[in-house]
Amino acid sequence: MVVGDTNSSPNSPSPSVINLANNSSATDSLKLSKTGQLLLRKSRMSHLLFGYGLLGYLDGSIPCPAADSPYYLAWTRQDALILLAIQATIHSSLSPTINSCSSSASAWQFLALSFANRSSTRQLSLLSSLMSLKKETMTVTTYMTRIKSIIDDLAVIGHPLEDAQVVIYVLNGLGDEFSSLAVAVHVRD
């Protein structure tokens, strides 16, 4: 039985396979690239796979059955469709590497390693950007979007910030027009 498949029973030799490639949330126009939106894409793909009960294909909790198992063919078909959904979300510059992956789990691991550059240099660069970011002439929305992007990048490389740290960075970059707000928040803590 394929885990997460409500159309099959333990005695069913041919469980249904869920085609993720046709799901618009898996194949929308936002493509994952080396400079792109890993956190967003990973989150969308994770939620999609969780919703279908298929996240275990990526983390190994739904292992490939033995080749002589009646579930082997369904498992390999499902894994191929998950791999196709991953391939549909990446930029063409990454396609050759992902296309050489033999399973959805290996493609997922490759992407995780490729994008989660844990070097201290990257962390310091992002923190420096966050410290030097000032609202100045930006709208509040633009300013907060830039902060959120940097915070997300830090989380992707394994260095998430605490909420209190984020508040400090936001307040420090607001400028004089928001000084009363900054004082009120500092006093409240």
For this entry, give a set of tags:
55% helix, elongated, disordered N terminus, mainly alpha, 189 residues
List the helices and strands and how they pair.
Layout: H1 38-51, H2 56-59, H3 72-88, H4 95-99, H5 104-115, H6 120-132, H7 140-156, H8 163-174, H9 179-188
Task: Please tell me about this protein's structure.
- It holds the Pfam family Retrotran_gag_2.
- By secondary structure, the chain is mainly α.
- The N terminus is likely disordered.
- Helix 3 packs parallel to helix 5.
- It contains nine helices and no strands.
Q: Termini, distance in Å?
A: 54 Å
Radius of gyration: 21 Å
Could you describe the largest sheet, including whether it forms a barrel? none
Number of helices: 9
Mean pLDDT: 79
- Could you spell the SSE succession in H and E letters? HHHHHHHHH
Assembly type: single chain
Number of strands: 0
Uncertain runs: 1-14
Shape descriptor reads elongated
**Percent helix:** 55-70%
Summarize the structure.
The protein is 55% helix and 0% strand. The protein is mainly α and 189 residues long.
